[in-house]
């Protein structure tokens, strides 16, 4: 019997302890807390009044039209994806996740009815890749495939179905798609690239999970292991790809295509909120809590939501206390993007998908005006939340995906969070608020691995007394 089946959530649910007060307005106190790995919330002082993101990706102009273009590309590819992946038959090739009300988890987190309603955006169950990376990762490979297919004369109009044929696979086989990754992006890129017929190579950092490497190899993907961290794997992959004119390198640190692929999620979430009867306007604020690595995925989602909801959506990124790269970049008012190593941190975390030493400068520049802030989470808290959401709602996620569950507590109970709510006149509007925790991965975690995660969380959860045999 698995560990999840040996415990039942008791009716009386203990509230999760509030986070320690985080510094606000004192840069040195904030950095001191970061260096000592104390969980903190940095509320963004430079959030624009209109809540809109930046308008350029480097020298390229950027706007809502670009996210619509990405959404249209994913729509055009639905027949191809349906043909390539049997699991997409029911959705006609659409890769999307449900928006789930989670009332039991809301009670566990101590989020009262007077503070809004909690939902989970369940990207941990996205088909094909099993994580949020299915969005941006698939989009970039599909964009490359479409461009190449038109050059090769495989397609000419809107019908992309020839790309699922043996002839397309044969011609694509002369080209390579490569990426550097800690795990989930590599899974996404490797799975779709190999399915289309490309030679797929994934450069993986030392902290990548062994099962993710094995899953890629089962798919026929070449996995190159590196002793260094995420940044080292990306750099090595980028250098190797530069020597091959037939290699397309997916650069997680500087890819507009990835970013826009993530942004397309905003359209579907807008429709899901409307279907759930959740209004988003000045009187009904939306709070979204998203785990963050280099910043491309949460940045793209924030970009998309900001264009749809403007100042009424407040996105917060969640990072491990060992790897707060986006927090450090956001806090740096000089526009620099520091490494966590510069602050004495080791970037070692069980949240492998978030083990990134330096944020994407492009993502920081674009989302800074739209972002509410960044909060950090200790590793053990990740496992506690993983266990809680399993017990409360039956959701099976990986540690990285649990980071967002600390968001409501950080926002509502830290000094920095309360000041943010006051500054934006949100405190009185909380009863009508919607809170969304974005769970980012977990579908393909092997059972034995997940059982270890769950057992660790059940041992550590402060409310474990309410989890009775």
Report on the architecture of this protein.
The structure is a single chain. The chain has 18 helices and 15 strands. It is α/β, with parallel strands linked by helices. The protein folds into 2 domains: 10-129 and 259-463, 3-Layer(aba) Sandwich (Rossmann fold), CATH 3.40.50; 133-254, Rossmann fold, CATH 3.40.50. α12 (296-309) packs parallel to α14 (361-367). The longest helix is centred in the first third of the chain and has 20 residues, at 133-152. It is globular.
| Strand element count | 15
Main beta sheet: 7 strands, mixed
**Structural class, please?**
alpha/beta
- Lateral arrangement of strands in the main beta sheet: 2-13-12-11-14-6-5
Query: Could you list the spans in which at least 5 consecutive residues all have pLDDT below 50?
Result: 1-24, 464-469
Helix tally equals: 18
Strand content: 5-15%
Query: What integer is the average pLDDT?
Result: 91
| CATH class designation of the largest domain | Alpha Beta
Approximate helicity band: 40-55%
Measured on Cα atoms, how large is the radius of gyration?
21 Å
Q: What's the number of domains?
A: 2
Shape field? globular
């Amino acid at each position: 019997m698995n560990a999840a089946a040996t415990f039942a959530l008791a009716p009386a649910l203990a509230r999760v302890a509030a986070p320690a007060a985080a510094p606000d307005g004192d840069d040195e106190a904030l950095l001191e807390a970061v260096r000592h790995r104390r969980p903190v919330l940095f509320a963004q002082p430079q959030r624009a009044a209109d809540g809109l993101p930046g308008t350029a990706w480097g020298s390229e102009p950027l706007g809502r039209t670009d996210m619509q273009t990405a959404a249209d590309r994913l729509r055009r590819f639905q027949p191809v994806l349906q043909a390539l992946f049997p699991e997409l038959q029911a959705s006609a090739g659409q890769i999307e996740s449900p928006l789930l009300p989670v009332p039991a988890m809301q009670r566990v987190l101590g989020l009262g009815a007077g503070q809004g309603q909690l939902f989970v955006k369940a990207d941990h169950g996205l088909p094909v890749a099993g994580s949020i990376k299915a969005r941006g990762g698939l989009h970039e490979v599909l964009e490359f495939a479409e461009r190449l297919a038109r050059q090769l004369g495989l397609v000419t109009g809107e019908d992309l179905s020839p790309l699922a044929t043996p002839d397309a696979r044969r011609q694509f086989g002369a080209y390579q798609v490569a990426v550097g990754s800690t795990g989930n992006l590599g899974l996404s890129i490797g799975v779709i690239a190999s399915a289309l017929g490309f030679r797929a190579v994934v450069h993986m950092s030392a902290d990548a999970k062994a099962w993710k490497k094995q899953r890629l190899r089962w798919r026929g993907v070449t996995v190159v292991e590196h002793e260094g961290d995420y940044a080292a794997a990306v750099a090595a992959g980028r250098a190797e790809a530069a020597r091959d004119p037939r290699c397309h390198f997916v650069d997680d640190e500087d890819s507009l295509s990835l970013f826009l692929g993530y942004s397309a999620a905003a359209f579907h979430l807008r429709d899901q909120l409307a279907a759930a009867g959740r209004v988003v306007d000045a009187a009904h604020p939306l709070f979204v809590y998203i785990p963050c690595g280099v910043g491309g995925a949460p940045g793209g989602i924030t970009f998309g939501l900001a264009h749809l909801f403007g100042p009424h959506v407040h996105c917060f990124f969640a990072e491990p206390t060992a790897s707060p790269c986006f927090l450090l970049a956001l806090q740096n008012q000089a526009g620099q993007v520091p490494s966590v190593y510069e602050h004495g941190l080791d970037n070692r975390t069980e949240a492998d998908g978030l083990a990134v030493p330096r944020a994407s400068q492009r993502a920081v520049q674009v989302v800074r005006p739209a972002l509410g802030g960044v909060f950090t989470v200790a590793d053990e808290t990740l496992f506690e939340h993983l266990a809680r959401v399993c017990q409360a709602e039956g959701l099976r996620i990986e540690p990285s995906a649990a980071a967002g569950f600390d968001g409501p507590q950080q926002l509502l109970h830290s000094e920095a969070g309360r000041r943010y709510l006051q500054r934006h006149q949100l405190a009185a509007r909380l009863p009508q608020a919607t809170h969304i925790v974005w769970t980012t991965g977990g579908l393909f975690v092997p059972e034995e691995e997940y059982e270890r995660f769950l057992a660790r969380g059940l041992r550590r959860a402060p409310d474990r007394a309410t989890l009775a045999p």
